[in-house]
Design goal:
By secondary structure, this protein is of the alpha/beta class. It has one domain: TIM Barrel, CATH 3.20.20.70. The protein has a nine-stranded parallel β-sheet. Bound molecules: flavin mononucleotide. The site of flavin mononucleotide (FMN) has 19 residues, from β4 and α10. Flavin mononucleotide binds next to β4 and α10.
């Protein structure tokens, strides 16, 4: 039940390594498909993320950034694979930090969901861009397509070594760019999740079959990122709690993976689910706090802090979940697209949270 005390953001700070996050309402990574052709952020990103930082969220997880050009989902993805890109991100991280918000960045390899059209182009058709039209050959654990997207090739061991190196380089670039947190994307049907799930991974080598084999790539990435990112900064993993389908990842398997991530030195699990195959039944059910119970299980099993995402529609609910509930923070997605001041509005009694420039509005 909601109560008035929860209409304000939960302003207890959370400290992870040397990173102190001012409150428990955070922005979930949401791809904007607005990058320059060289993968650098544009004015759109500064305005978009800048507004949410003014909006007093504790942490902004900047959308999925490709760890290499062939790891992009679309040609308009942000990239974090070279120093020029890192330098261009600094304008963003500087502004976010000046507002007292922690800048984080999600690192991603798209796997078989790569070489895709922008989501608002060609809706309802095959979303892939062919190599002939400027796309690129994707790879995944197996040569099996996601729905009607282009068929990936099966990754060989050299590809997997490159993936691990690309994530490590991206973590170094993220540090140069001024990010205080990196998040490894191991969910939503992108490359690392594709390896984890038996629904997309049909390999017979040491990267397929048992859970130990299916999580081998993600754990190699986890270790490499943890080594490459400064010890005083935090590493998160976006983890899938279930694939929702028979034969897919179960909560028990997610717990096994999470325990290994804790051993690698990961600092927080960001809990989500689904989307590894194109099937309505693989989508997270559209209900309030759909991942909360999963997050509680993962926290109990690993003793790691957890953030939860999915259908948390207002500050009251967010406050219940973090103050008396089973999670350490909430990640807010679509509500923050609709309203950059989702969180700030809850600070109406706390003038200090509002920028000087806006004081006369109060
Ligand atoms: C426009 C849009 C882009 C998204 N891009 C990403 C992304 O880059 N990385 C990611 O992990 N999830 C992405 N997501 C999923 C969200 O982070 C979030 O998990 C999902 O929207 C559910 O949370 P919500 O109910 O608060 O919106 C995206 C969602 C939307 C609506």
């Amino acid at each position: 039940m909601s109560s008035p005390e929860f209409t304000r953001p939960d302003t207890r700070p959370l400290r992870l390594r040397d990173v102190t996050i001012a409150n428990r309402v955070w922005m979930s990574p949401m791809a904007q498909y607005a990058a320059a052709p060289d993968g650098k952020p544009t004015d759109w990103h500064l305005v978009h993320y800048g507004a949410r930082a003014v909006g007093a969220v504790g942490l902004i997880m900047v959308e999925a950034n490709a760890v290499g050009p062939l790891h992009r989902t679309t040609s308009a993805d942000l990239g974090i694979w070279n120093e020029e890109q890192a330098a261009a991100h600094r304008r963003l991280t500087t502004f976010i930090r000046e507002r007292g918000t922690v800048p984080g960045i999600q690192l991603q390899a798209a796997g078989r969901k790569g070489s895709h059209l922008l989501p608002w182009v060609g809706a309802g058709q095959n979303g892939s861009v062919s190599v002939a039209d400027g796309g690129w050959q994707t790879f995944g654990p197996s040569a099996v397509a996601f729905g009607d997207l282009n068929q990936p090739r099966e990754a060989d061991h050299a590809d997997l070594d490159e993936v691990v190196e690309a994530f490590a380089r991206a973590a170094r670039m993220a540090h140069l760019a001024g990010y205080q947190v990196v998040e490894i994307q191991a969910s939503h049907g992108y490359l690392l999740h594709e390896f984890l799930s038996p629904l997309s991974n049909h390999r017979t080598d040491e990267y397929g079959g048992s859970l130990a084999n299916r999580m081998r790539l993600a754990l190699r990435v986890g270790r490499a990122v943890r080594d490459a990112f400064p010890a005083e900064k935090a590493v998160f993993v976006r983890i899938t709690a279930t694939d929702w389908l028979p034969g897919g990842i179960t909560l028990d398997e997610a717990v096994g993976f999470a325990e290994e991530l804790a051993a690698v030195g990961v600092d927080l699990l960001d809990v989500t689910s689904g989307l590894v195959v194109r099937d309505e039944a693989a989508r997270p059910p559209a209900r309030d706090g759909v991942h909360v119970d999963f997050a509680a299980t993962l926290r109990n099993a690993t003793a790691l802090p957890v953030a939860v995402v999915g259908r948390i529609e207002n500050l009251s609910r967010a406050g219940e979940l973090t103050t008396n509930g089973p999670v350490d923070a909430v990640m807010i997605g679509r509500p923050l697209l609709r309203d950059p001041y989702f969180s700030l509005r809850g600070h109406s009694a706390d003038k200090a949270a509002w920028p000087d420039q806006y004081q006369r509005a109060l």
